[in-house]
Write a structure and sequence with these properties.
It contains 7 helices and 6 strands, in the order βαβαβαβαβαβαα. With about 180 residues, it is α/β, with parallel strands linked by helices. The chain has a single domain, classed as HAD superfamily/HAD-like (Rossmann fold, 3-Layer(aba) Sandwich). Helix 5 links the parallel strand 5 and strand 6. Helix 6 packs antiparallel against helix 7. Bound molecules: magnesium ion. Magnesium ion binds next to loops. The site of magnesium ion (MG) has 7 residues, from loops.
Length: about 180
Amino acid sequence: MLKYIPTKIALSVFDINYNELYANGKRIILFDLDNTLISYYEDEPNDKLIELGNMLLSIGFKVFVLSNNKGNRIMKFMSKFPATGAGYLMKKPFKSKIIKFLNLNGIHSFEEIIMIGDQLVTDVLCANNVGVDSILVKSISRESEKFYTVINRLREPLIIKRFAKHNKEYANQILEIIKKEKKHG
Ligand SMILES: [Mg+2]
């Protein structure tokens, strides 16, 4: 169950202290795409996201977008997003394609990597399978999730409920991140 627990949590990719990550030795950022950087309703980064990408590169990070989604969606996004590279059909939470990708890109110091995503049973589990630190962020829009994601989501509260026996405070903080917001209006 601890393999589903992120190293840290944040409300969004804009609420992460990247300078602190860099100061703590992180050099490689592996972003999830769907509902972490953009919702399913979007296919391109907005100005704020482009600014973030530029900022991360200027700090000195290598920035990669690694998604389970198909190549055409990733390529469309990457044509506007400033980053070092991207991978699609990555089969998270399984580690083999991710490790192959890292090796191909000359990345061997896993302690320099931070993986950032919105799902416990894909992104966070994958980070723990690979053996790298992770940050769980709130999903941009839960309304647009596909059926397999909805099924994955059903497991999240059960995982965290069990984790609460180890660390109730952190479990409650994670619950706030994964809970589905009620629609307004
Ligand atoms: Mg996602």
